[in-house]
Amino acid sequence: MIRTLQFAKRNLIELSRDVLGYIFCIAFPILMLIVMSVVNDSIPKEAAMTTFRIDNLSGGILIFGQTFVMLFTAILVATDRSTSFLLRLFSSPMKSRDYTNGYILPMILISIIQAIVIVISSGVTAMISSVELKPEGLLLVILLSIPSAIMFLSIGLIFGSLLNEKSAPGVCSVIVSAGTFLGGVFFDAEGVGGPILKVCNSLPFLYCTRVARSTIQMDFRWETFGKSLLIVSLTAIAMVTLAIMTFRGRMKADQ
Amino acid sequence: MEKKEINEMKEINEMKEIKDMIVLENLSKRYGAKKAVDGINLTVKEGEMLSLLGVNGAGKSTTIKMLSCLTKPSGGSAKIDGHDVVKDRDHVKEIVGISTQETAIARNLTVEENLSFMAGIYLDPKTYDKKKRKERVEEILRDFKLEEVRRTKSGKLSGGWQRRLSIAMAMIGNPKVILLDEPTLGLDVLARRELWREIEKIKKNRTIILTTHYMEEAEALADKIAIMIEGKIVMAGSLEELEKKTGQKGLENVFVSVAEGE
């Protein structure tokens, strides 16, 4: 256990010293929250468009932020592999669980910190916009967004294990865009309907956004919340299992 | 002299005998059709420093990788302190420290943080609590004269300092065996000499295998030299023994004579 914690600590320090991490994981989502809130204020009420209203927007932004945690997980793992740092550790008494847990734990912590910052920013934005946000929903979403965080960071671990430090960010950017678009973060997927909604419903991203939005709105119906949480949780379990298998496979291949 | 006394004397003499710390028997590694290491036999005594000398691609790093459990041998066996590198790899990993050819350090961590991290990985928490681990880090910082750069991010250090840190990281767990893979590769002459002094210091009571293609390095540091050519150890022994075998003076002449004879 101590080796897992030592490795997790090292990864946390490594990430905390990367300025780009703060920009993409914290500043950028907050900037989008502010920009989209301004856009929301500019939309005429007759349009009845609520995607960018803070009670809808904050859940989407939370998932948007998590896609960047995926990106940074992939970069960290790919960089460790390319600099031979991991290879050196493979000759140490560390076990394979120490590596995977050591990567996953700090990323969960970063996702929680990110969620807290987004929740606080959403609260402030809601007060400015005179929109009522339930405090208990904001507190609960910090906890209930953990399954989607695990899903995204597991995808990052998979890409970091398979790709090198140059190609990992590129491929992850595709997932960031896909996750944001098909997750209905910045558009109303249900409202659009048709084939787009079918594609969105066949991928896990929209369910992540639904869980976050429903929790913030304290709407715990099966259709909007329960079913989505179940899908996200099962996907997170599948992804973390796949990530561990991929990393272990890569560990052997790198040796 | 009584029989009992004779037996006791024998036991004392056996105890005094220096044990074989590293034993390679017909060790080989293949990558597809290519034989990277081709059935090498070698014994390194406890406290001895052996230099694996050879040109690039001779199989030195592959040998080091097998000894540090980074790659599995294709054939033969390698034992460290009586433990097989395949069957007892967990134990081998506890007693071997390695400094790889590529300076594998956490670049965003300071020198002290790198050492603390490795202390947490290598030192048994049952015998080394947090305080003792910290003391070990301080000891290593002192021994390797790293105190002045302790708070510097390791990625910002010069090549020489990074190598020194890399060796210090290999030493943190107080290993019985240290594997140094091309420790001075790419360093200028002053940094190389400085690192030699550090390596000389860690020689005490430790078994070391050092790979290099610098003749003067092997000559200056090693007790025993093994010349590797195309995956095979073609000659091994002390410098004097090698000179005697080849009739040449100086390691460079010995090496050229052996390489041209192959």
Question: What is the CATH superfamily of chain B?
Answer: P-loop containing nucleotide triphosphate hydrolases
Main sheet properties of chain B: 6 strands, mixed
Report the C-alpha radius of gyration of chain B, rounded: 20 Å
Residue share in helix of chain A? over 70%
Quick check: average pLDDT of chain B?
86
**Biggest sheet record of chain A:** none
Low-pLDDT runs of 5+ residues of chain A are none
The total count of strands of chain B amounts to 10
Describe the 3D structure.
The complex is a heterodimer of chains A (255) and B (262). With 255 residues, chain A is an all-alpha fold. Chain A has one domain (2-254). Chain A contains twelve helices and no strands. Chain A has helices spanning 2-16, 19-42, 54-82, 85-90, 96-129, 135-144, 146-162, 167-182, 189-192, 194-202, 205-216, 222-254. The longest helix of chain A is centred in the middle third of the chain and has 34 residues, at 96-129. With 262 residues, chain B is an alpha/beta fold. Chain B has one domain (19-261): P-loop containing nucleotide triphosphate hydrolases (Rossmann fold), CATH 3.40.50.300. Helix content of chain B is 41%, strand content 24%. Chain B is built from ten helices and ten strands. Chain B has helices at residues 3-16, 60-67, 89-95, 111-122, 130-143, 159-171, 189-202, 215-221, 239-246, 251-261; strands spanning 20-31, 34-45, 49-53, 75-80, 83-84, 96-99, 177-181, 207-212, 224-229, 232-237. In chain B, a hairpin with a 2-residue loop joins strand 9 and strand 10 (232-237). The longest helix of chain B has 14 residues, at 3-16. Chain B is globular. The interface between A and B is medium-sized, with 23 and 27 residues.
The gist of it:
The complex is a heterodimer of chains A (255) and B (262). By secondary structure, chain A is an all-alpha fold.
